[in-house]
Structures are given as C-alpha cells and as structure tokens.
Amino acid sequence: MQNRISSFPPLIDDQSEILILGSIPGVKSLEKQQYYAHPQNKFWKIILELLNEEFTEDYPARLEILKKHHIALWDVIDSCERKGSLDSEIKNEEANQIAELLDKHPNIKAIFSNGGKSFKSLQKLLGKNYKLPIFLLPSTSPLHTISFERKLEEWKQILEFLV
C-alpha cells in the first residue's frame, strides 16, 4: 500500500544565498522530522566537511550551521504517495511552490538539486532556462553508489556561490 507523505517547510531566510533541493523526505527523515536523517545518507557529512565545520549529530546545531553559511533547504515535492523511501516509488506527486519561494527570496543566487529526481522535477516546474543557475549534484543517498570522495568533489560547486 502507498502512503501519502508530505515534505517539511523550507529552511530559508533573507541571508540565504543557495538553495539545496531534495525530492521528498525518506521514511527515517519523516520519523525523526529532520532533513536527511537516515544515518547512511551522506548529506550532513558532505555539507559539514565542505563548510569546514566539525561533524555533529545535533540537528538544531546542523541547521544553525546551514544558516550561518547562507544555505537554504527544501524539497521539490510537497506531497506524494510512496511505499518506502525510493524516489522510483513516488506516485501522484504535488510540487512545492519553488518559484514563489524564490520570488520571496531574491537573495538566492543558485539552486542545487540533490539527485536526479529533484533535478528532473525542478526542470519540469521551472523550465530548463530558469533565471537562476540550476545544478545537478550526485544524490547523497546510500543508494547512489558512487564513492563519498567523488560525491564530495562534485558538491564543492556549492562553494563558488557562498561568500
């Protein structure tokens, strides 16, 4: 049976300069009500290493680090039906209001998609020639099996847009 699930509110403020978009939270993230909560997801390890911050499991501290470095987080999908956590299982998706969010936050300079599903859904939503640059990054999910080092290297693109 498919369950209807919903994404979290955006983590963004008037200082945010880049927006990282996932598809929609997985089962573990929904359980914990935290972005990228699955222990095997490399999002936090990559972000904290890129930003030269000490690794922490403390979720509020992680969010403060993102804020300090002007990074916003959200998901492309507002709600969908999905069994488990696989993007390939997503059905009947409803999109988040990404364009409206960006209109309210003209400080955003670039958008980074965490994985292919996010990227493809975002292109459908905003169009391929959107006014901001949109980058596809390798998914931090453990199911995306390229090495941590290679993921980290590709994610370094983010640093070009941060002050």
Question: What is the element layout, followed by pairings?
Answer:
Blueprint: E1 3-6, E2 18-22, H1 27-32, H2 43-50, H3 59-68, E3 71-75, E4 77-82, E5 91-95, H4 98-104, E6 110-114, H5 116-126, E7 134-137, H6 148-155
Parallel strand pairs: 2-3, 2-6, 6-7
Antiparallel strand pairs: 1-4, 4-5
Helix pairs in contact: 2-6
Order of helices and strands: EEHHHEEEHEHEH
CATH topology: Uracil-DNA Glycosylase, subunit E
Number of E strands:
7
Q: How are the strands of the biggest sheet laid out side by side?
A: 3-2-6-7
Which CATH-level-2 architecture? 3-Layer(aba) Sandwich
Rg, Cα atoms, Å: 15 Å
- The rounded distance between the terminal residues' Cα atoms is 46 Å
Residue-averaged pLDDT: 93
Q: Structural class, from secondary structure content?
A: alpha/beta
Count the domains. 1
CATH H-tier superfamily: Uracil-DNA glycosylase-like domain
Number of helices: 6
Broad shape: globular
CATH level 1 name: Alpha Beta
Largest sheet: 4 strands, parallel
Q: Proportion of β residues?
A: 15-25%
